[in-house]
Design brief:
- The mean pLDDT is 96.
- The protein has six helices and seven strands.
- Helices cover 37% and strands 21% of the residues.
- Helix 4 links the parallel strand 4 and strand 5.
- Helix 1 packs parallel to helix 2 (38-46).
- The relative contact order is 0.16.
- It is α/β, with parallel strands linked by helices.
- It has a single domain, classed as Formyl transferase, N-terminal domain (Rossmann fold, 3-Layer(aba) Sandwich), CATH 3.40.50.170.
- Bound molecules: 5-O-phosphono-beta-D-ribofuranosylamine.
- 5-O-phosphono-beta-D-ribofuranosylamine binds next to helix 1 and strand 5.
- Residues 7, 9-14, 83-84, 104-106, 170 line the site of 5-O-phosphono-beta-D-ribofuranosylamine.
């Protein structure tokens, strides 16, 4: 199974996928919407091709998603793995990759969708939050859940320590989910 990872920023989850020897050979492409994103350097260092685009250069989402589709076809990509890709996926990509786009979100969905999910959970003073992997649909963090893992918010946690705890779980959790999808293949037909 060939994978494309989509990311917009730091790329620590991209790195966790790259660092997994069972996943690395399957990663054919990084799709990035920000020319200055540190994740690009990580891909270059790993020898993974990068398709970087600037949304403003296109008339609409359908136009840049069509270009992404062309790139995905070029590398015979079967599964799109979103890892900090800060854009809603539109009908152009969803139409071709239905049930073949997976996202990682730093909360126990449906709780705390959208931006700053870790901060939202911290502010809400809930006792536990976590991470979710889900298939992508047209909504914001609304698609069918594949797997979740809880993270306890301790009394002494600050937003910084909680963020660190969540990222550590993500870096173990997401590669495991991706390997499961690669092995089963069924969910992504
Ligand atoms: C992660 O927390 C992920 O759950 C969310 O965006 C963040 C990306 O972090 N979707 P990084 O760029 O992988 O370090």
């Amino acid at each position: 199974m060939n994978l494309a990872v989509f990311a917009s920023g730091t790329g620590s989850n991209f790195q966790a996928l790259v660092d997994d020897p069972a996943i690395f050979p399957a990663i054919k492409l990084l799709v990035c919407d920000k020319k200055t994103a540190p994740v690009i350097r990580r891909a270059e260092q790993a020898g993974i091709p990068v398709f970087v685009f600037t949304a403003k250069d296109y008339v609409d989402k359908a136009s840049f998603e069509q270009e992404i589709l062309d790139e995905l076809a070029r590398y015979s990509v079967d599964l799109c793995v979103l890892a900090g890709y800060m854009r809603l996926i539109g009908p152009t990509l969803l139409g071709t990759f239905q049930n073949r786009i997976v996202n990682l979100h730093p909360s126990l969905l449906p709780a705390f969708p959208g931006k700053d999910a870790i901060g939202q959970a911290y502010q809400a003073r809930v006792e536990e939050t976590g991470v979710t992997a889900h298939f992508v649909d047209s909504g914001m963090d609304t698609g069918p859940v594949i797997a979740q893992e809880k993270v306890v918010i301790a009394q002494e946690d600050t937003i910084e320590t909680l963020t660190e705890k969540i990222h550590q779980v993500e870096h173990r959790f997401y590669p495991a989910v991706v390997k499961q999808l690669m092995a089963s293949g069924k969910e992504v037909e």
